[in-house]
């Protein structure tokens, strides 16, 4: 077929111009830079919609405008405790002791006689700890009755990701990788600025949804552009490095939030720089593979010649002649190509294959397990990132560490996939997450370094699991529905991720509950994964019958040079974005 021939020809061309020469290295670095800001925007709500420390404003003891979050008389006015360092923490930031009306004339000193320690009341004004200014102060989103509004910002973000993922995948195939990649990047910047300019909670929520829609297209399209510009031996490397950029971008968000305490300034810092990527329209080339698939051989030939010049390579006479011939044929084969596309669509027979899948109890059970594992991965992966700001110690540093641990997490997945196979790599990653999350949840008191270390190990495990599940799922799907099947799983995971922002709220009822929940569902997912068939060194199933036969002893295996997918040839959600 035309597209497969073009793709094969381009791999042959890469062998002449270089699989990852200077031309590809420069352009690959360029497409990685927007990923940094996509990663930061994907989790910016952790800090812009975060909850600062606050307590009731005590009018009897604070008549002036100069207010301090920590004072020495708080114990007599507010229910709470002090730690060994003397820092006071209220049991409920919206409760105070009732005023003793008979002693209100003694305002010269703030003492226990001004309050009734057995009676509490709600307060309407608050004193915030300096050093952090979020939407909570701007729109008075305080107390438990407003906690859902802050969590709902995260849910809105994931809803935007679902919309954007479905939309931009189609648009990139229709209008080109570069144009849609640039549109997503600029749209992300503009809607991020809109968030900073929001005038109330509802407008902030609307811009957060639009910002997530734009953000959702940056990482996947950068992944596709990167993979399509290099040779087969370099594809895995490009996907790994792009994941590293994503993790660094998330960590830089923690650093930026640490330095920029005002949520609006932080949002401007994350949103204005992406606007400058508009120059990529002139700097970054379109995907040659996409151009060849669209029969635009003239544009593809110009990019190939430019790459050969920059890489200091010479094209062979045979290749030059082939390019010229393809350019001549491009004006004559449109009708033939249309007929070939129609025939190929008929041959695929997607819907009959879908019916066969639903007719197999084995595949239904297998895919239900996969759906559950995908949802667990999303809930735990994003839930741990959100819950990192609740750990003791510096929350900005904790957040950065939780993001950076993704780098060894992806590396662990890459290693385990080759040494342990798909099933043990997935199960082991999930069980590692389960054990360390549960242990971190129970250790609510004690050495802070141990709690944080266990927490980081949990994030490492779930990151590895998320990387494995893409490859594992793709290798269990028959060819005719592989892309759609992985897409369904990924979309289901995003719906699961919508629950992640609400999980940390469970800590207000029982402090270890969020981590114990993460540990429990990871444990269940890890055990269920052992029921799935091993796909390592197995031929990719082309038909539903071959997919059903996976795991049976009669199924033939291949050597290490088979067509199993490499560990990082699928983009994660950043994920994510």
Automatic annotation (TrEMBL):
Task: State where it is primarily located.
Answer: membrane
Q: How does it sit in the membrane?
A: Multi-pass membrane protein
Q: Where in the cell is it found?
A: Membrane
Give residue ranges for domain Major facilitator superfamily (MFS) profile: 94-537
| Key words of the record | Membrane, Transmembrane, Transmembrane helix
Gene3D superfamilies in the record: MFS general substrate transporter like domains (1.20.1250.20)
Tell me where on the tree of life, at the top rank, the source sits. Eukaryota
Q: Name one GO cellular component term.
A: membrane
Which residue ranges run through the membrane? Answer: 26-47, 150-172, 179-198, 204-227, 239-259, 265-284, 363-384, 396-417, 424-443, 449-472, 484-507, 513-532
Q: Name one Pfam family in it.
A: MFS_1
Q: Which InterPro entries match?
A: MFS (IPR011701), MFS_dom (IPR020846), MFS_trans_sf (IPR036259)
* Annotated GO MF terms: transmembrane transporter activity
Repeat as UniProt keyword: no
The protein depicted here goes by the name Organic cation transporter protein
